Amino acid sequence: MKPIVFVLSLFISMRVYRSYSDSELAYLLTQGDELAFTEIYNRFYGLLFIHANKRLNDDEEAKDVLHQLFESLWVKRLQVAPDGNLSAYLYTAVRNRVLDVFAHQKVESKYVDSLQDYIDQDHLSTDDMVREKQMAVLIEQEIDALPSKMREIFILSRKENKSHKEIALQLGLSELTVKTQVKKALRILKSRLGVVIYVAFLLKTYR
């Protein structure tokens, strides 16, 4: 099939799918219909994002929630009730994932508080100091592995304690770009190092 014919055929198919009810799309989804999944994504993503972001107040976190939700929807499509309320199903799934985020943040917060208290007591044993040095080496390696511009911005922010505005002026970037790059760097480091090592190092080195 020629590319232009394929695109036209796909466009016509998507117009047909837009006319389907939620129940019809849910049924087709359980049959592994990728176009039905695409239509569900297009139909609900915007509203679900607003719903999640209203509670999280964090665009990136809300996007992560939606990414995980739709990934799970496809993987577990056989569990979707074809005759059920698809909208209610998706909103409930978003609510549960938002609650998971809050629960995870609460656990991290408790860990950070207890770890900070321990560090403030300043009575690390020899083994503790060895582990601390090992963690420092590990996170420095991961910082070095960041993309060059992201690494430069991250170092200026976290090691030289420059504000986003100062970094933006120094590098000729917008403050939004600087903020986004720092946030992405933190996400990368957290995913590569794990929460415990990541938080411990930040508390000890960047406070």
UniProtKB/TrEMBL annotation:
Give the record's keywords alphabetically.
Sigma factor, Transcription, Transcription regulation
The residue ranges of the RNA polymerase sigma-70 region domain are: 40-105
* NCBIfam families according to UniProt: Sig70_bacteroi1 (TIGR02985), sigma70-ECF (TIGR02937)
Query: Mind telling me what this protein is named?
Result: RNA polymerase sigma-70 factor (ECF subfamily)
Provenance organism: Pedobacter alluvionis
Return the SUPFAM superfamilies for the record.
Answer: Sigma2 domain of RNA polymerase sigma factors, Sigma3 and sigma4 domains of RNA polymerase sigma factors
GO biological process terms on file: DNA-templated transcription initiation
Q: Which residues form a coiled coil?
A: none
- Cite the RNA polymerase sigma factor 70 region 4 type domain residue spans from the record: 138-187
Molecular function via GO: DNA binding; sigma factor activity
The record's annotation in PANTHER family points to: RNA POLYMERASE ECF-TYPE SIGMA FACTO, RNA POLYMERASE SIGMA-70 FACTOR ECF SUBFAMILY
